[in-house]
């Protein structure tokens, strides 16, 4: 039962003379909390500052009985305050920084937090949970098995399993054994460990790019002409063969469509393209020795559309290199956009099957 419904059930106008004016705000708060708990509502009291939790608990411990008229009056007053509330703000500078997380720059947030002398607002384990594995693994490897055991115990099970799977076998085994020794770990120790790890995560210098160099170079070459792409890759082979190999695996061009695009995803790609662009791309591809890509696309759409496209390709005639490459690039970019939107999944390129 929701808290609103619970309040609505007992919040009619209280009888005349039956008010809660004689009660303090602490007593009223204790009455509201007790009422919500009785109704089965989930009241996240742990999110309150420790001092307020202690005050509320102490207040509840001093109260014995409240008649129904008083309860109705307190609930009615509380419901009225809720209805009249238009906006709330986070508590203190730390709460403001947390509320603006992701909307102000990391540099500004770090400077404000340092100037105010506040720690990361809220539970540091929430920040650790949001940290990517590539960042978290080196930190865990540098910690003792006992500390790592506490970390895995605090994380969500699926995320902890992924983290454990990224660790070397011997380290993973020592951590697993150490979990059995976490029975006597105190909440204060867990909080300190969380703060230390969060501080290490915050201490990383901010980076300017969300994607790595391989993804950035691959994306640029995806939209480049084949001649430029081949020239760049040849140069990379001479200067950094490993980097060139990774870039090749990140590249997705028109010729890779049959190997990486599922047959069932062809119709949605076709629908997302202007027919004139598709005809130009298919005609250009056919004239440049990429008939396998043309047939892959045509064979995985409706027969009527296939016949129509074949006729228009014949009428289109020869396509110049520039417009042809632009059209094929648009087909590739459309597939990439659909992938980024989660509408399709491209097959990955395994080692030894790099894009030429």
Could you describe the 3D structure shown?
The chain has 356 residues and is an all-alpha fold. The chain folds into 4 domains: 3-84, no CATH class; 93-119, no CATH class; 123-202, Annexin V, domain 1; 252-340, Orthogonal Bundle (Annexin V, domain 1). The chain is built from 21 helices and no strands. The longest helix is centred in the last third of the chain and has 20 residues, at 321-340. It is elongated, with a radius of gyration of 31 Å. Mean pLDDT is 83; it is low at 7-18 and 351-356.
Considering the chains and any ligands shown, give keywords for the structure:
elongated; mainly alpha; 356 residues; Annexin V, domain 1; single chain; 21 helices; 0% strand
Strand content: under 5%
* Terminal residue distance: 61 Å
Shape: elongated
Say what the CATH topology of the largest domain is: Annexin V, domain 1
Mean pLDDT across all amino acids: 83
CATH class of the largest domain: Mainly Alpha
Q: Compute the number of strand runs.
A: 0
Low-confidence stretches: 7-18, 351-356
SSE pattern, N- to C-terminal:
HHHHHHHHHHHHHHHHHHHHH
Helix content: 55-70%
The total tally of domains equals: 4
Could you say what the CATH architecture of the largest domain is? Orthogonal Bundle
Main sheet record? none
Radius of gyration: 31 Å
Per DSSP, the total helix count is: 21
> What is the CATH superfamily of the largest domain?
Flagellar motor switch protein FliG, alpha-alpha superhelical domain
Give me the secondary-structure category. Answer: mainly alpha
């Amino acid at each position: 039962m929701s808290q609103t419904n619970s309040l609505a059930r007992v919040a009619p106008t209280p009888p005349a003379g039956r008010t809660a004016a004689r009660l303090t705000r602490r007593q009223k708060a204790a009455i509201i909390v007790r009422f919500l708990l009785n109704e089965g509502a989930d009241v996240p009291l742990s999110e309150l500052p420790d001092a307020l939790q202690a005050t509320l608990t102490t207040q509840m411990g001093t109260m014995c009985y409240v008649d129904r008229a008083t309860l109705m009056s307190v609930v009615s007053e509380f419901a009225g305050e809720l209805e009249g509330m238009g906006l709330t703000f986070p508590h203190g500078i730390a709460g403001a920084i947390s509320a603006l997380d992701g909307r102000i720059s990391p540099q500004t947030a770090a400077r404000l937090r340092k100037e105010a002398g506040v720690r990361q607002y809220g539970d540091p384990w929430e920040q650790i949970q949001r940290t990517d594995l590539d960042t978290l693994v080196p930190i865990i490897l540098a910690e003792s098995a006992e500390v790592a055991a506490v970390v895995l115990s605090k994380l969500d099970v699926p995320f902890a399993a992924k983290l454990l799977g990224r660790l070397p076998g011997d380290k993973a085994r020592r951590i697993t054994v150490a979990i059995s020794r976490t029975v006597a770990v105190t909440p204060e120790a867990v909080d300190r460990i969380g703060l230390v790890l969060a501080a290490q995560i915050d201490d990383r210098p901010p980076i300017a790019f969300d994607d790595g160099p391989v993804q950035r170079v691959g994306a640029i070459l995806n939209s480049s002409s084949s001649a430029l792409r081949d020239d760049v890759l040849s140069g990379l082979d001479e200067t950094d063969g490993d980097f060139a190999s990774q870039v090749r695996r990140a590249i997705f061009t028109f010729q890779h469509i049959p190997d990486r695009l599922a047959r069932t995803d062809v119709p949605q790609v076709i629908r997302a393209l202007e027919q004139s662009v598709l005809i130009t791309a298919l005609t250009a591809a056919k004239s440049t020795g990429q008939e396998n890509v043309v047939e892959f696309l045509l064979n995985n759409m409706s027969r009527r559309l296939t016949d129509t496209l074949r006729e228009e390709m014949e009428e289109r005639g020869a396509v110049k290199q520039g417009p042809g490459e632009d059209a094929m690039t648009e087909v590739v970019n459309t597939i990439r956009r659909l992938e980024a939107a989660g509408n399709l999944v491209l097959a990955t390129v395994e080692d030894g099957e790099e894009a030429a």
